[in-house]
Amino acid sequence: MEMVQTKVHHKKRQVVIFIILILLWEAGSESIQYSILEETESGTFVANLTKDLGLTMGELAARAARVVFKGNRQYLQFDPETYDLLLNEKLDREELCGSTEPCVLPFQVLLENPLQFFQAALLIRDINDHAPEFPAGEMLLKISEITMPGKVFPLKMAQDLDAGSNSLQSYKISSSPHFHVLTRNRKDGRKSPELVLDKALDREEQPELRLILTALDGGSPPRSGTTKIQIVVLDSNDNAPEFAQEFYEAQVPENSSLGSLVLTVSARDLDAGSFGEVSYALFQVDDVNQPFELNANTGEIRLRKTLDFEEFQSYQVDVEATDGGGLSGKCSLVIKVLDVNDNAPELTMSSLTNPIPENLPEIIVAVFSISDADSGHNQQVTCSIDDNLPFLLRPSVENFYTLVTEGALDRESRAEYNITITVTDMGTPRLKTEHNITVLVSDVNDNAPAFTQTSYTLSVRENNSPALHIGSVRATDRDEGANAQVTYSLLPPLDAHVPLASLVSINPDNGHLFALRSLDYEALRAFEFRVGAADRGSPALSSQALVRVLVVDDNDNAPFVLYPLQNASAPCTELVPRAAEAGYLVTKVVAVDGDSGQNAWLSYQLLKATEPGLFGVWAHNGEVRTARLLSERDAAKHRLLVLVKDNGEPPLSATVTLHVLLVDGFSQPYLPAPEAAAADAAPPAPLTVYLVVALASVSSLFVFSVLVFVAVRLCRRGGAASVGRCSVPEGPFPGHLVDVSGTGTLSQSYQYEVCLTGGPGTSEFKFLKPIHPNFPPQGTRREMEENPSVRNSFLFS
């Protein structure tokens, strides 16, 4: 878009260049000139530029050669195969240059990579394609019969549009005894005819004569044009009109308004009466190009058409004064047109690179030329762009400029620039032209994808369904197009023991993460891996982020009772002395839960008892205690059913059965030494002896059975299992089955020993040393059941 304004924007970088109407070639450089005849057919060979410019074959094509004429006209073109210079259209020398000789069209050859200019010119040679033409087909002359021989009568000139030797050269007239014609060379280079009287005329003898005037050019063969001359012989009129000046000069500004007075001519005639009355007329009238009109009575010459200095700088006008008797006189006028600043500068874009790549300094964005059709001071121009843009204007040869980047551009900071090139002349008032171009910055892959987070933490509940979407990662790339398209991938795991390929997968297009199989919290509580994001640029850039997946526990494990074990071959019996007080610790139910958190919080409850109200279970630690004092009326054998329940949702539970035997005399916390017992013991009664013998026999039989059972178990499982006592696993157990913080599951496993004595002394129930197992980090309840390692702790003596 171009617009002409008279104001100049402030804060502009200005580079001043003087443009002269006739182009001046750069100092020290030679211009190559080619010539061609006008009216030559289009496509005619003009020159071999590759040879003339000293370039290598194919270099013109490789460097995107262009021919640039003033006004962006394309008179020449390149052959697409050979890159020879050809004529692009028929050229008419008279249309291009008028009467100017020689007719030269300057042009530039523009090469890129690197930018280079070559000056050249095309000379249009004239051919004789126009014949001389008179402004009218007939001229009228009135000559008095008393006119003396030798008198010269100016005639109207013929015009020939050709130039040089092909232009008008001479005049001739048909044969006449009274006249001959002279060809006069004028100061402006034109040739005018003059009729010379050779013999006096006699009106009575021949009142009228007719001649034929012929104009000849210098072509080969010559062309000609003719007009008729009618001569009327007048009766006696002694004096012809005479102008005050034979030659007039005047100046008129090109912006003068129509009707403006240009000049007044004056002639006088010494005759009296009608012979002394003078009228004025333009002697040579060209209605097409003549911008003036003459008042026939006053001699005032006024403007009838708008003047244009750029089209015609001066006019040659002949004025004829004629009296009433037909005699005439002639004078010449030269009217010079004065230039005013009425033409805004012109900008012609020769080359525009769009878009331009980022990160490269000093890229040539555009090549353009500027010109102003005015002259002198009005032709001087300045060229500028806005200061706040990262671009520079650099003058090149002649009136050419290059627009280059000031430094490397960053598309991510700004992807588009609107540049206004302002060309202002130095005339009064100043005129300017603005040319707007939009420059796009193309992307280069200079930004790696960036994750929205440096690390991601995802949670997935165990026992999930395969192919479950567990979360997403996201990375963005500031580039555009393929350079901004991100592809996601899983990087090799940090821990080589983690089977990452079987755990998760990632959608390469959107970063969605999926669990490939069902996860088990008890087997794998958390794992980490790295995710990569790479763009599709060349070369590809990438980044990575850490992803931590936490497996959320689900209440999928019921409590597991460690003591007493229910798969023992003989039931576990707890001995309680009848003398025990309320709150007496009978035993402790030990259980674990494979889950974690509140899913592993265990509570204990007595579901069923042989005698309700005799025993109670503490809800938080599983201790079985007496609820009241024992009496002789209480049964000796009791069966307790204890419920162990977790705090999950829904809660899971397990039950354990306890056997309690009430015995007499089993109330001391420690057994006395054998010597003291023997000294204090009274002589045994016969019933006591029988009981001891029977108990020893049963014990021997029981011990034998236990040994056989142990041998069979060792052979079958390779493990050791004892019978005849309450069993406690001695480890190893999974560490995650042992809870801490007093939630109802023991933080340690305890080994209990119950010793029975057959003497009359008091039996004793005592706690021995605690067991501190070294549990492995992970395991399952099934593994514990299949691989028990227990030790019998219920001893008889």
UniProtKB/TrEMBL annotation:
<dbReference type="Pfam" id="PF08266">
    <property type="entry name" value="Cadherin_2"/>
</dbReference>
<dbReference type="Pfam" id="PF16492">
    <property type="entry name" value="Cadherin_C_2"/>
</dbReference>
<feature type="domain" description="Cadherin">
    <location>
        <begin position="135"/>
        <end position="243"/>
    </location>
</feature>
<keyword id="KW-0732">Signal</keyword>
<keyword id="KW-0472">Membrane</keyword>
<keyword id="KW-0106">Calcium</keyword>
<keyword id="KW-0677">Repeat</keyword>
<dbReference type="Pfam" id="PF00028">
    <property type="entry name" value="Cadherin"/>
</dbReference>
<keyword id="KW-0812">Transmembrane</keyword>
<dbReference type="InterPro" id="IPR013164">
    <property type="entry name" value="Cadherin_N"/>
</dbReference>
<dbReference type="GO" id="GO:0005886">
    <property type="term" value="C:plasma membrane"/>
</dbReference>
<keyword id="KW-1133">Transmembrane helix</keyword>
<keyword id="KW-0325">Glycoprotein</keyword>
<dbReference type="InterPro" id="IPR020894">
    <property type="entry name" value="Cadherin_CS"/>
</dbReference>
<dbReference type="InterPro" id="IPR015919">
    <property type="entry name" value="Cadherin-like_sf"/>
</dbReference>
<dbReference type="InterPro" id="IPR050174">
    <property type="entry name" value="Protocadherin/Cadherin-CA"/>
</dbReference>
<dbReference type="InterPro" id="IPR032455">
    <property type="entry name" value="Cadherin_C"/>
</dbReference>
<feature type="region of interest" description="Disordered">
    <location>
        <begin position="776"/>
        <end position="797"/>
    </location>
</feature>
<feature type="domain" description="Cadherin">
    <location>
        <begin position="452"/>
        <end position="561"/>
    </location>
</feature>
<feature type="transmembrane region" description="Helical">
    <location>
        <begin position="689"/>
        <end position="712"/>
    </location>
</feature>
<dbReference type="GO" id="GO:0005509">
    <property type="term" value="F:calcium ion binding"/>
</dbReference>
<feature type="domain" description="Cadherin">
    <location>
        <begin position="244"/>
        <end position="347"/>
    </location>
</feature>
<dbReference type="InterPro" id="IPR002126">
    <property type="entry name" value="Cadherin-like_dom"/>
</dbReference>
<feature type="domain" description="Cadherin">
    <location>
        <begin position="576"/>
        <end position="676"/>
    </location>
</feature>
<dbReference type="GO" id="GO:0007156">
    <property type="term" value="P:homophilic cell adhesion via plasma membrane adhesion molecules"/>
</dbReference>
<protein>
    <submittedName>
        <fullName>Protocadherin beta 6</fullName>
    </submittedName>
</protein>
<keyword id="KW-0130">Cell adhesion</keyword>
<feature type="domain" description="Cadherin">
    <location>
        <begin position="348"/>
        <end position="451"/>
    </location>
</feature>
